[in-house]
Amino acid sequence: MTDPRYIRNFCIIAHIDHGKSTLADRLLEITGTIDARERRDQVLDDMDLERERGITIKASAVAMTYKTRDRLDPKGGTAEYVLHLIDTPGHVDFSYEVQKALQACEGAILLVDAAQGVEAQTVANANLAMGARLTILPALNKVDLAQARPEEVIEEIEHTLLLERAEVMRVSGKTGAGAAELLEAVIDRVPPPKGDPAAPLRALLFDAKFDTYRGVVVYVRVVDGRLAKRAKIRMLGTGTVYEVEEVGKFRPRPYATSDLAAGEVGYVIANIKGLQEVRIGDTVGLADGPAVAALPGYEEPKPMVFCGLYPTSPGDYEHLRRALEQLRLNDASFTFEPETSAALGFGFRCGFLGLLHMDIIQERLERESNIDLVQTAPTVTYEIERMNGERERIHRPSDLPEAHYYKAFLEPVMRVSLLIPADAIGPMMGLCTERRGRYVKTEYLSPTRVMLVYDLPLAEILYDFYDRLKSVTRGYGTMDYELRDFEEADLVKLRILVAGEEVDALSTIVHREHAEYRGRKILQRLRTEIPRHLFEVALQAAIGGKIIARESIRPMAKNVLAKCYGGDVTRKRKLLEKQKEGKRRMKQVGGVEIPQKAFLAVLGGE
């Protein structure tokens, strides 16, 4: 059992692509955790998608042992420390993974790119770490780059994050320069865990993943006591009891041990099979031990972006359900519920933290479960305030009652931090104003870099806002956002009618200002996708009973005069009138068939 004085738990946090996983590789090599045969780039990114996209999606925990240069243990030998490192994602959509990692640590290495400087997610992650009362070790990465500007970036760190200039360390994740000194600083400055090894068991369940052969593997941080093999444990939140089959650590492969002591981070396998049995943030105690108080867990993640996922083949519905259940276990921030669509049949309405999160989930489903999917255009969650004052969530337009049943319609508003070059302030403010943004403040990080803060409706940043940001700032702008509140707005349900019949699957919720533009775009798509009939088909967009846009699909015309040679003009007129009457009668009794590709063109936002 390791003395808690020789344990350090820390994580690496940073903006996306600032070199967290590369620095983690160097730390694993310095501590001898991986040998030459196992060396590869981004060792801890073991998902194919992570390696292909060059991003971290899931936080990864690894245990390292490190003998210090000049510290002695009580027996006079070289002190050996056990360092538990958690590598975290950098993208805003995966900030929930960062929050989980922070709960299991006492310290955090805040990594900043020496060329890019402080970015939006750097500030957000630093605030999360400060909120969790962690010891922060600021470090400049990529100092070996020709375009590195260390002095300017250190000034940004000091000004923006209020961290001491003298505390900033300089490292290179690529060459390994300064990495050993960083490990020494972790031992010096990060406090050891405060748990009591003699107290009853209390462990924080901070993550879980599903193994096809062994069931659910849960990641725990032992706070008090000892967690050993064959012990009977109880999940305090769900009340379920299990017998521990195996405990161990990741080095970085799973490595079984006899126990996990106070302050240590590792994994537990206890024949847990069901999704409902595991709750991230739960406290693990002994089933037959004294009652213990639950540890502070996590705030449940709130999905902000929703879309429908439907199998292209109706027979794959149950297969899709099982795949979603398995994914839900590996990702607690992802939600789903069954739904049906007149256009697409049976499927699921899924909730995500953002657009990248949605993209990753869809790609994992198609790859890991080999399912062909139809994905509808993303939407956000709204709220209505009923006449009695109660609030109700609206996930899809069909859930919206008639206007006289509610007194307020509310939309999610995000506090958006935009880090941009100073010369892009004008165009950026113009873009935010165009998207119904409300100015909050401007903060100068340096003479050339500015942080703009706006309150923007989530619906306005959902589609192409990030692309426009990159365009306006020539690729140098970054953004971070968090939910501020739900605010009242002039929102309406945009109804789509085909030949006078409402098509519920195509209805959307939009701001009244944009309703005509959005309605016209939908109708133009439908006009190109719905085949021509023998009669004219009217396509209409409406708010309530008021038509705000219209397109028409011209009827197919047969030349009834083709065999009419010469003769009186009245004969031709009779034939034309007969044709017109036939079309009128056909319009009254004929139905308009909307092909599935027309629904996909609109719902998929193509």
In short:
Helix content is 26%, strand content 34%. It is α+β, with helices and mostly antiparallel strands and 606 residues long. The protein is elongated.
Q: What would you say this structure looks like, in words?
A:
The chain is an alpha+beta fold. It has 5 domains: 186 residues, 3-Layer(aba) Sandwich (Rossmann fold); 85 residues, Translation factors (Elongation Factor Tu (Ef-tu), domain 3, Beta Barrel), CATH 2.40.30.10; 76 residues, Alpha-Beta Plaits (2-Layer Sandwich), CATH 3.30.70.870; 106 residues, Alpha-Beta Plaits (2-Layer Sandwich), CATH 3.30.70; 112 residues, Alpha-Beta Plaits (2-Layer Sandwich), CATH 3.30.70. Helices cover 26% and strands 34% of the residues. The strands form 6 sheets. Strands 11-10-16-7-8-15-12-13 form an 8-stranded antiparallel sheet. It has a 6-stranded mixed sheet with strand order 2-3-1-4-5-6, sandwiched between helices. Strands 22, 23, 24, 25, 26 and 27 form a 6-stranded antiparallel sheet that branches. A hairpin with a 4-residue loop joins strand 22 and strand 23. Helix 7 packs across helix 8 and helix 12 packs antiparallel against helix 14. The radius of gyration is 30 Å and the shape is elongated.
